[in-house]
Amino acid sequence: MAHGEGDAGVFTATALPGDPRLLPTVTNAFLGTRVFRDILHAAGVYSGAAGDTHRADVPSPLGLRLATPGTPSPAQSFALDTWKGTFSHTIQSPGYTATHQLYAHHSLVHLMVSSITIRRLDSSTHPITVQLQSLFVPQSPDLDLTPGPDFQGAHYIYGQTLVPEVPGGPRPTVHMLWTPIPRWLTLGGEERERRWELLTAVAGGEEEAKRSYSAGLALAAAGSLQRCHLRAWAALRRRCSVQLHGPPALRQALHGCLYYLLSAIPARDCPGLPFHGISPGGLANGTRGEDYWGHVFWGQDTWVFPNILLLCPEAARAILQYRVRTLEGARRNAQEQGYEGAKFPWESAATGREVCPEEIYGAQEIHVNGDVLMAFEQYYCTTQDQKLFQEDGGWELVEAVAQYWCSRMEWSEEEQLYHIRGVMPPDEYHSHVDNSAFTNAVARRSLNFAADLARDLLLPVPEEWEDRARKIKVPFDEERKYHPEYDGYSPGEPVKQADVVLLGFPLMHPMSAEVRRNDLEMYEPVTDPAGPAMTWSMFAVGWLELKELQRARSQLEKCFSNITEPFKVWVENSDGSGAVNFLTGMGGFLQVILFGFTGFRITRSGLLFDPAFPDDITKLNISCISYLGNKLEVTITREETRMEVTETSRDPPASPLEAVLESGQRFPLREGQSVSFPTAPGWIQRSPS
């Protein structure tokens, strides 16, 4: 498809934001940087012990500034093209343009590229020279770097991080090769246009770094280095295409979220490359003292993961494998706190040990265990991938989390129910509370999933899992018909962020429409308007569920105070504080579109749908919903819903599907055949035929 002037997926500006934190990021699964910055980060490369663990700053040759010293005050423009996965800076001078383009290669994920193009615009024949300004110094406060011999014209450094995350633990190694940066580039008098490509290859081993650099050189020599990247990025955007007919600001926000989130996920072409999780500020951020130091939170599992699961289940699986790989660290956390099983850290890095600098969060914000398991449950219901659980460590993780919850509960003789005491709920304005509604509800869901999965895998189900799931207390006020946030919560108490409203979605905790409404009404006015960006998306989903379309739209509108111009970089808090490039908030926003507007709900029996749009949205097209080995294109308007299976898995074979409306009408979903029906509630399920 052609994209041009006024395109909602291309963000342009004639000046950069005054706050450099709000510059856009360019990343792939392994490398990331913020444009014009002199450091980059490599996935899984942390330095510092325990609470001091942070992404190791790797010196970056990519933070170049293009200048034309002979032209006073030339016209400049900047563009982030979400269709191409590139950032560009263009200088327009009399008779020529000079463009610096930066991208993280999406086929060669150990490679980042700066390309500079000078294009003559007139018939002159004099040489044209531009300057490259660089602050690059091959040193790092986090790495013990040593220069090595040049390789194929590239400079080479390598070294280890200075301090391991845990005593005696591994110190990751970084190998980096880069094209020497010339101070000047000249277009000869006889040339009309020329491109220079400066490569930076970073890997954990010398062989991989050299292989990637050589492959980049070969593609550059053939004139196809950028084309190879564009092809890989375009394929990802096609697989994850979401198109809205609605206000331009909403469409721009959607494309921005897709760009930053898809930049963060594992590459399809690199199944052997371990994935190291998604932190709130993404891979480009997370140096010491910023963006939670690059740690992985519940933001990955609760806020980002469901979107990736629907659009790209292979990447979703890799995210879960990060949690499997860190299971032993989670077991140690539980053991040190005096409990059984595994306790995933509130903040995680490479080992699964707790790396939160403040002890209270790691000790009390234990709902993260249920958040992790809910992602595994959603994946299982959507894919039926038993191999992950039978062969690749998934069952051991599910079992360990269930064991933790059982050991963390205490029996109340007075109430004849199980309690979980002394926790911090998602609302971090309160700590040391008993029976957080969200924490206890997500623990119940964990135990129910563990029992259901055990039966599916033909494993014995411990009786205590089912007993404790039945008898755990989830606070409920019978008089007011709402869920108090915890034992002793008083209506009107301020709340930091989405908490009890998460019981309705994503937890799908059983409740009537009246209770769902009461929870929304109770907590919306007392939730801090300056709280984190993902909050309002969950209120929007709740109101969409109740078909209160204008109330949903007003909640969604609140998200825009967290989206900065001109590059749609999200900030965690509307005053600009907190993490930047806040993927957690973007994940919540995208869930409004993928789960709120569609009404999609992932259940054991089917994928429910119940579409609802605010008035200013007329159509939604999602090109590639993944469900039970099928890829479905779904187009929804107020009047009509159209579905088509566009692709089916052969190994393992996809389950044949059908759409069923609440009215009882059934529509077989066969590959290559589009079916339409009036927009109404229903579900997609395995076809009984």
Question: Which terms would index this structure?
Answer:
689 residues; alpha+beta; Beta-galactosidase, Chain A, domain 5; Glycosyltransferase; 3 domains; 30% helix; 24% strand
Into how many domains do the coordinates divide? Answer: 3
Total beta strand runs: 32
CATH architecture descriptor name of the largest domain: Alpha/alpha barrel
Overall structural class, as computed from helix and strand content, comes to alpha+beta
Span of the ends, CA to CA: 38 Å
Share of residues in strands: 15-25%
SS summary, helix count: 16
The whole-angstrom Rg is 26 Å
Question: Can you give the helix content as a percent range?
Answer: 25-40%
The CATH C-level class name of the largest domain = Mainly Alpha
* CATH topology grouping of the largest domain: Glycosyltransferase
Mean pLDDT value: 96
Molecular shape = globular
User: Major beta sheet, specifics?
Assistant: 9 strands, antiparallel
Strand order of the largest sheet: 1-9-10-11-12-18-16-15-14
Catalytic activity: (5R)-5-O-[alpha-D-glucosyl-(1->2)-beta-D-galactosyl]-5-hydroxy-L-lysyl-[collagen] + H2O = (5R)-5-O-(beta-D-galactosyl)-5-hydroxy-L-lysyl-[collagen] + D-glucose
Function: Catalyzes the hydrolysis of glucose from the disaccharide unit linked to hydroxylysine residues of collagen and collagen-like proteins.
Organism: Myiagra hebetior
Keywords: Glycosidase, Hydrolase
